[in-house]
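Hi everyone, sorry if this is the wrong subforum. Our group has a chain we'd like a structural model of before ordering constructs, and none of us has done structure prediction before. Sequence below.
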Amino acid sequence: MMRKLGKALIALLVLVAVVAIGLMVWEPLSVAVATPPPPHRYDSVIARDTFGVPHIFGRTDPDVAYGVAYAHAEDDFATLQEAVAMSRGRLGAMTGADGAKVVYALHLLGARATVSRDYMKQPADVRALLDGYATGLNTYAARHPGEVRLARLFPVNGQDIATGFVLRTPFFFGLDQYLGALSGDTPLPREAAGATPDAPDPRALPAAQDAAGEGNMNGSNAFVVAPKRSADGFTRVVSNSHQPWKGPVAWYELVVHSGTGWNFAGATFPGVPYPVLGHNEHLGWTNTVNRPDLVDVYKLTLGQGGDTYLFDGKQVPLQATRVWLHVKIGPFVLPIPKTVYRSVHGPVIVNKSGAFALHYGGADQLRMVEEYHRLTRAGNFAEWQRALAIQGVSATNFLYGDAAGNIAYFYNAAFPNRKPGFDYRNVLPGDTSGDLAAGTVPWGQVPRNVNPASGFLANANNTPFQAAGEGSEMKPGDYSPLLGIETDTTNRGTRAVELMGKDGSISAADLERIKYDTGVSKLSWTARWYDDIARVDPQGDPALVAAKALMATWHWRFDGNNPAEALAAILLRAGQSWHYPRKAKKDPRTELAKAAAYLTQHFGRIDPPLGTVLRLRHGQVDLPLDGAPDVLRAASTWDEAEDGRLVVNHGDSFIMFMTWDKAGRVSSTSIQPYGAATTRPQSPHYADQAPLFVAHKTKPVNFWPTDLRRNVERVYRP
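Answer:
Right subforum, don't worry. Here is the predicted structure as tokens:
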């Protein structure tokens, strides 16, 4: 009997071992290997400047794209692989549950189906560019097999690169918030729930200003000055887009030069074959996230079997597709079945409350791939506007300046066509075509502010009706409420217009001072939040009495020169966590107590210097920072380290100052929080820009080859 039990146990252990091995190896064997791009010999040259920033030269644009991929892989191949795994539906197998959620979105939005249908419709030069980039990744992977994180992930092709664009684009205007809310059966973002967005303080609107008059809560800043407002008659653009300091949407700086006349300096994201902001010889721009209401939610009336829905009096089949999400759990990859649904409106999520369809701006199209490239190649304002009019980029503000002295702000969005008489901020009935319209609002109706009389423009994720100062603003009444333009303000937006409006002759030094400003405007929402804190009743609590007394000494800045700044910064983060997402206001008494307790626990006092608390840490680099959430010197989010330090991970990231002189010649400087090689600790450029970044300093971009030759570290062919 014991012998039989022993044999059974051995057999069971063998079976478990076989299953375990199968779970470890089945996923790569189950995936189809992509067809690589057509064979082509790419001729690229990479010149690294003294900060390791790659300047990529090529005879053609695809030659350059090949070099872009190879250079980026040298500096951050780990993150590039995540971008590729996302596009190929394998991110869950690489990173686990969080990656599987992204793959679910990939299937739900039909990103690969969109690319399969539309890829060959793209211009041949754009497809060649994507193929060149994919080949650069394949070449690096083949030469460095030990760095490849997932078997059979390579080769990739141009379709894989294009899929990443389709999937990520709607997340810039917050579609992911709707997906998360519906999947979790939790309340929708406030626009969809029918609440009116927070109106700005009337005193902060441009019409009442003196001389001048968050995409997500982390935000971005942009500043543009025309020659007539500039102290020296130059045109200036400041790019200050806020992104995470590492990861799949971290900025990567580069300069490209093609023999066909494509010359551009700026930054890109992992998986993108060209810069998406910066400048060429003639013009430049930057982006900030805007928050138009581009998502409409419809509740479907399902049939008795749940496989149809009522639409215009008929039962219509609910499209259902079974997909498998591959989820890494420890050493294993488990297959998780999931069904994705689709109606005539768009993707459908079924939860306990019912079936909800999403209809959103810029859905199911691939035009952004061409648009971004055409923008970088534009030679003047008219050409640049024609590229923007492609309307492939679903959202984000564009702030522009050029050598001819033009400045402009385009509140860019692919506004869905909507019908009067329906409240698109609420969940709509999905059983009728009466509230559903196809297509996008024409380009001519997209809000814009071109060459305002004030001579300046700014945006910091605030309403577009606060950008240029008194007498120069767009008027809300000129635009249909069906566009869903936000009316929210941020402290950064109010402060930027406030500072620029008071300066009648903005010099380069003035603009730099404004960009690094750490102040809180007395006209902003932040002032009202701090007023609420000042009115807190301590009720005899000594800790609250001390905290209130300290806050009363604060000088309304985060420059490191006042003992209340660390406490004020934590409180501002608490306020930002409810204000920008339009959530219920937090209790100021509770937040004051929590902030004081945190500082006391970790520092033994409530008044440690800001630079002691707020840190830039990367590898062995550990430096003090100034700034705070929602100030122009942005330290938006942070991790709480074991020693209590607040280690910033998001905020001011890639910063670029662009200038066109009176002769129309461009020059620029830039800076990153870490360096060019953010995931390569052995590289001298892992964190070499950090000391400059914390000191509010920049480095030369060396856009012109003659300047690069004096500042080159190495030159090679990849």
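For your construct planning: The longest helix spans residues 2-30. The CA atoms of residues 216 and 580 lie 7 Å apart.
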